[in-house]
């Protein structure tokens, strides 16, 4: 009985070794840079971290498909290196001798990428699934609603336009008043003409005014 059990376990181990190996069908390579991400706070990659990774992949598979019965034991790791890189596959829970299609594993990882990154305090750049494209971070929601920002910008433009119109109107009014005052002052000035190069006042030709020069001549030649 014991011999049969050992034989079964060895067969399963050999089968798993065939399923999980570099470039195997439906296998994915992972590269982790803990030191780069955390610096002096970096933790050691050990069996506990491997268990957590298997648990997160199983979680992603179960969350991707509500009918999935994936267990931690269905996630196989192989070729683990000291620089923290390895390959993994997910076996079919119903047969345990075949792997889940890579497209399903990729979709599950992409769907839960942020949860996996957070579990290891890493990011897409420091926790790399080499055959799975990085996911974009969820957009950051602004603290102020977008419509309120747009409304504020439009309101500022309207206020600026009103201020510009008021200021330009005041300046035009002042300019007009200044021109009117200058015109009135110009009309009030005494006209000065040049006669034989000597400036003299213009003659006042109002009715009833007698030129003094001609008046003197008239008195001189008046008959007795």
UniProtKB/TrEMBL annotation:
Chief localization: membrane
Keywords linked to the UniProt accession: Cell membrane, Glycoprotein, Membrane, Phosphoprotein, Signal, Transmembrane, Transmembrane helix
Keyword Cell membrane: yes
One of the GO BP terms on file: positive regulation of amino acid transport
GO-annotated cellular components: extracellular exosome; plasma membrane
Membrane topology: Single-pass type I membrane protein
PANTHER family for this protein: COLLECTRIN (PTHR46884:SF1)
UniProt-recorded name of the protein: TMM27 protein
Organism: Hippolais icterina (icterine warbler)
């Amino acid at each position: 009985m014991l011999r049969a059990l050992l034989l079964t376990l060895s067969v399963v181990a050999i089968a798993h070794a065939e399923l999980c190996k570099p470039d195997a069908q439906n296998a994915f390579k992972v590269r982790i840079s803990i030191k780069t991400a955390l610096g002096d706070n970096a933790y050691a990659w050990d069996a506990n971290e491997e268990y957590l990774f298997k648990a997160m992949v199983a979680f992603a598979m179960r969350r991707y498909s509500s009918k999935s019965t994936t267990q931690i034991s269905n996630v196989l790791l192989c070729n683990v290196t000291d620089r923290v890189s390895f390959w993994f596959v997910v076996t079919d829970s119903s047969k345990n001798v075949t792997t889940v299609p890579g497209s399903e594993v990729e979709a599950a990882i992409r769907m839960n990428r942020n949860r996996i990154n957070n579990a290891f305090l890493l990011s897409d750049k420091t926790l790399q699934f080499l055959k799975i494209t990085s996911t974009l971070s969820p957009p950051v929601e602004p603290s102020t609603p977008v419509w309120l920002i747009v409304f504020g910008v439009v309101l500022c433009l309207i206020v600026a336009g009103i201020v510009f119109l008021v200021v330009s109107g005041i300046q035009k009014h002042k300019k007009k008043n200044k021109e009117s005052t200058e015109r009135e002052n110009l009309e009030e000035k005494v006209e000065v003409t040049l006669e034989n190069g000597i400036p003299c006042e213009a003659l006042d030709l109002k009715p009833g005014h007698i030129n003094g020069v001609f008046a003197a001549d008239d008195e001189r030649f008046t008959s007795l």
